Amino acid sequence: MTNGEIWRLSATELTVLTKKGDLSAEEVVKDALVRMHQVNPELNAVVEDLGAEAMERASALDRARRDGALAGPLHGVPVTIKVNVDQKGHATTNGVVALKDVIAPDDAPVVSNLHKAGAIVIGRTNTPEFSFRADTDNPLHGRTHNPWGRHISPGGSSGGAGAAVMAGIGALGHGNDIGGSLRFPAAANGAVTVKPGLGRVPAWNPSQKAERGMLAQSMSVQGVITRTAADLHLSMPSLIEPDPRDPFHVHLPWRGNMQDGPIKVAFTKNTFGYALHPEVDKALDTARDALIDAGYLVEEIDPPDVFECGRLGYRALMGEVLTLMKGDIEAAGSQIIRDIFEVYFQEFPPIVGDDLIQALAQRSHHAREWSLFLQDYPLVLSPFLPQPFFKPDRDTEGAEGVHEVLGCAVYSYAMNFLGLPAASVPARLAELPNGPQPINIQIAARCWREDMAVDAAAAIEERVGQMAPILWEQMSN
Q: Which NCBIfam families does the record associate with it (predicted)?
């Protein structure tokens, strides 16, 4: 692999070469930075260039390796970090102008774990204001564009991470997900991710002044966006390492027990009255067939009520947001984000007061129903969105826009409310009037069995192929 092409390698491929000494960390990072400088001006995915810092760290890792130090599992892998997570010495802006000078006193657990594994942060990626849109734009850092074209939103809130990793800016893109913020950008950009389950990855921001609400604590998770499912198997064991600053972290191995016999998969196309686009329908069929070919037992059956569970969960979250965040949004948010939140509150009428307590109690009922179902069907293959990904700023177009962006995304935020892992993987490259566009599907799994969801994603990827090489060819034309 020559300089100028190293950036094309997956994290899995890179670590094979860096651990053998065939590539130095400096060579890897230098090539990643060249790629970033080539494509990021067009995308605005990375909003803080950490090139100098990254080269210093790469040199230090190379020296340590020459001196006999053991290489970490992510030795020399270039990564990006989302700007809503603390990285020591850098601003945790969360896409908000008023937070541009909030400098992190220490690394968040996810950053610390990546560093310990030998990864090298090359830049910090964009997010919408307060990280609470499925699109990525803000007055502080500007709009992020989708590398497939400006007619497609890059997704949010980890839109910078998704656009960066698919454009070849780093092999791993850190992100987080409270209602879909890892899976929306994966779907938008044709990337692969897994939303970890409740308590799986330790989380905390040392810069925060107050604790988050209970639903934010239980629904929000940290993860990575990748170009290939194998990179999730490589990177996630490092992310789930314990950190005492998260007292609710669940310390379990990445790999769970092997299942006896073929794994049963519940397959559903139920979109609860929302029209299922023909391209999404085809993507689901392709994913189903790939799993059957890989030896899974796929049965068409609906899981417990996703619509009721998802809507209840997001309405409860909106109740918490109304109580704990609305003042900050009004004081520090742009008019655009204030208007969007007003429509959010219409689409998902906030549950507050005594009703919120009842909704939180009802969460256990839904989680139990799913837990029982997943005893028979350890995986659930479903749509992620019922239609191809939406255009930029669709959520600024009133009730209809917010309904298309979030209202129909019940398979997304239901998994956050339930605390279940869910993978997103492209299953089709659709030829649409504006050009080719990836279509991702979702695979939910039993609690703390992210590995099973990623295995299924890998089986689908084996049939469909990776979207990145197709995208890179398009970007070069």
A: PRK07487.1 (NF005687)
306-324 and 353-376 helices, crossing angle to 10°: 140
82 is catalytic: yes
Q: In the annotation, is 238 catalytic?
A: no
What's the chain's Rg over C-alpha atoms? 21
pTM equals: 0.98
- Tell me which of 10, 24, 30, 82 is the catalytic residue: 82
The residue annotated as part of the active site, out of 10, 24, 153, 157, is 157
**Helices 306-324 and 335-347, axial angle in degrees (round to 10):** 140
| CATH classification at residue 411 | 3.90.1300.10
- 88 burial (CB, 10 Å; 0-12 / 13-18 / 19+) is middle
What is the domain extent for residue 12?
6-476
The predicted-structure confidence for 430-475, as pLDDT tens digits, reads as follows 999 999 999 999 999 999 999 999 999 999 999 999 999 999 999 9
Is 157 annotated in the active site? yes
> Which residue is catalytic, options 10, 181, 218, 412?
181
**pLDDT above 80 for 3:** no
Q: Could you tell me if residue 1 is inside a domain?
A: no
- Whether 128 is in a domain gets the answer yes
What's the pLDDT tens digit per position in 59-96? 999 999 999 999 999 999 999 999 999 999 999 999 99
